[in-house]
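Hi support team,

I'm opening this ticket because the web form for multi-chain structure prediction keeps timing out on my end. I have pasted the exact lines I submitted so you can reproduce it. The total is 954 residues across two entries, so I didn't expect it to be a heavy job. Is there a limit I'm missing, or should I split the entries? Thanks in advance, R.K.
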Amino acid sequence: MKKFISVLMVVLMACLLFGCGGGNGGSSKNKEIVVWVGEESADFYQEICNKYAEENELPYTITVKGMDTGAVAGTVTNDPSAAADIYTVAHDNIGKLASTQCAKPFTDEALIAQVLADNPASFQNVIYSTLDGKQYLYGVPYISQALFMYYNKEKVSEEQAQTFEGLREAAQAAGTKAITVTGDDGFNMSFALLATNVVDHSTTVKIFEGAEAVSGGSKGTSNCQGDDTVAVVRWLQDYAEDPNGFKWASSDGWDADLRNGGALAVIGGAWHYNTAKAALGESNLGIALIPTFTLTPKACEGLEGVKAGDTFRGGTFADCKVFMINAHSDADKYSALQDIVKYLSSKEVQNESYLNCLNVPAYVGASEYIKSCYDAGKLTESEYNLAAKQVEMAEWGIPQPFLTGSLNTYYYSKNAPAVFRAMIDKTAYPTTGDVLVEETESLEGVRKGLYLMEYLWMHGVNPDSFPEDLPKQA
Amino acid sequence: MEATLKKNRIDLMKPFRKYWEKFYKRFADGSLGTKLSYFIFGAGNLYHKQIIKGLLFLVLQIAIILFMVLCPTINSTPYGYKALLNLPMKNVVEGGAFDPLTGEFSHGSNCKLIILFGFVTIAVIAIYFILWDKNIDSSFKADMDLKVGKKPTTFKEDLAELLDSKFHITMLTPTLIACLVFTVLPTVFMIALAFTTYNDPDMNELGTNLFHWNGIQNFISVFTGEGSLGVEIHNRFLPVLGWTFIWAVFATLTCYFGGIVLALLINKKGLKGKKLFRTIFILTIAIPQFISLLAVRNILGEYGPVNALLQNLGWISQPIGFLGLHPNDSESLAKVMVIIINMWVGIPYTMLMTSGILMNIPADLYEAAKVDGASTFKMFTKITLPYVIFITTPYLISSFIGNLNSFNSVFLLTGGGPTYIGYQAGGTDLLVTWLYKLTIDQGSYNTGAVIGIFTFLITATITLVTYRRSKAYNEEDTFQ
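Hello R.K., no limit was hit. The queue was backed up. Here is the completed structure from your submission:
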């Protein structure tokens, strides 16, 4: 018995050690190319990749895995050696992934030419980063993203959905709140931060304007001090205080708000479509641009650069999802990986991806294709609206700028989103150490909050103190 | 008292003195082979014609010496003596170079490998000295065997012994190796990170994982508030630590006494359906804890049945944020709620254990007490409670320590909320959930390691002090 136990122990130990050692190594991995895409598109891209591998007699098998693309950047940076050969992230992660050496640049000339020919200038400005002092293409766009609005058609008319005031009117009638958001981070709150003047199309907040989207490049300028920015914050403070105005998403999820009638509308993206449809039902699901709002006299009180009656449309970050290549993949696969990305980001595959998974294409002129599909009866009305409204909203938005690994994440991981939420809720927020700004209702309090956000964006830390005279710009 | 003090006094020099005596004795009394084995491994065994054993020792010595001198290199990072020289972060390879023609890419810096290989080399040196000692021991044992007229053991006999009188060594060795490789080495590595600038954003701009030693700066920043996460640590460490203790005390005591009361009720004589009641309460153990907690979270949610009921009754106009999931929700309410909800998952364990203890209390104690005219309450306070507390003290301590490190209840119910603007640590965050956010969300492993070390020191101190002062330890044999 003892001998048996001893042998068993030794075998178990050996298995344990070999098991740990085996891991991701081995020859099978060298014959396999792993691609990470969004969860909703995995089956489609697997089929497409199988077709590609067969047609091109690829010496590799391609395995496509669906991932939460919002979490992919974190997964890759945590352990790049365990990540896929090709992975999908939102473009604003490019700086982080490039500077932490988790991504390898694209060098294939045909692929670079395709990217330059197909994509709008706004995307081309944010897909490069530097390595060894040289500028390289790091991300290849294939899905565009922008926020728009889902609403309950049963309770909100098409006309009411055009303005925040109309939504409030519908909410009053229904005895509920008008609108909510899917999160309180910078991206989801861009409807307020990037509110756009309908006359001159200028955004209230200027974020990293003139920045060079390269590692170590210029940070450009950010400006949160405009009177229009202050007025929009004060307008949203009032709208949030209104019993029929804005609400933060429920702790049960924003879809619970829609389902239970806690809010009549939500600002979201194409990736929220299935959840919104499940909450409201296809027949009740309305899709519209983010509405406009008109500044009230109260919001403009004491401000010179704006006047009551000025109208703004809720803004959005207009982003793209990109394919990136893992720096830890075998150098032998490098050429094949670039070829696969070139194929997967081609107009044809983007179109197929839209028809199959509602991934809105990133290339210039995609709206014509979308319209033609609708006319040909390939899309339902809401599927068409989803793409059409997103493309239209993208014209009101800007891509999230990024520079190095951390500049953009300052906005997400540091105080800025929390400070903005505190301002909207009119609650106190700390600035430096234990100093609290308590008078968030006042003009001074709003200016201080905006100054704090701007400083955080530019420096990543709280300011030591507030200037005697807070900068005021029209 | 004096006896206890004497018992607890530790003579730190004793092991060294004992080893010196052994070292001297073996050299002085040993044969030539034993003397030689001080320099050449296995020489003593070879001298005693224990060929296989001697050669094994010799091969191991040569292998370790070659390992130390030749310095095998992996990813531009050497083992051996060079690893020791590199340990102060010398010869760091920053990485990041890319060849566009071949697609070859040199990865991030080798700082982590330098630390890891340095510690592995130190472990190898430690193994060398252990083998050195064992090889002398082995030769000296053969000397002693010869002295008493016995033949030195053969290799076959040594192997047979491993399955007989030394079977414990055979059984423990794989576990010990696994423990060293999978527990001790990673722990030492993580402790080492606490003394580095790992995840310093300024250095990471240059290339991933590039860092250097910075002494006890991370520990100092807890008190001064300097460094990349200094303000967070400085401002939130004490509040989080304080709440962690409050939580641990309440979570332990509520579950402990709740469990005892429940066990007393269930074990009450004359109660029908005892097994049924016991089964019902044990069901909470059978259901995975996270499912129970998430279900409760939904029940107490904004659109959950509790808020719906209160609103329908007209008692409240707006939903109550029971669990602090929104920044404006009440922190105190969230804290009370997690303690109450934790009773739901914690009480059945104590109930189960106490039930067993209650059934084992000698009935004659109660009979004697009854004869003496003791009331039921008196019997509870003088017999039942002391008996249960005596037996469950170690459980109580481990339960308290477990609650200090309790992750599920807080993380799944409140997520640490309500959030504090500008900080990772929210109102109900415990040290362990904060640690999770700092490491997994922020990647600040060095700061996490600092907090981990503080947590360990606190829990270890409490465990040692309370356990050594408990009756269960000092009067181990009295309650039989």
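A quick check on our side: Chain A touches chain B through 54 residues (CB under 8 Å). Let us know if the file doesn't open in your viewer.
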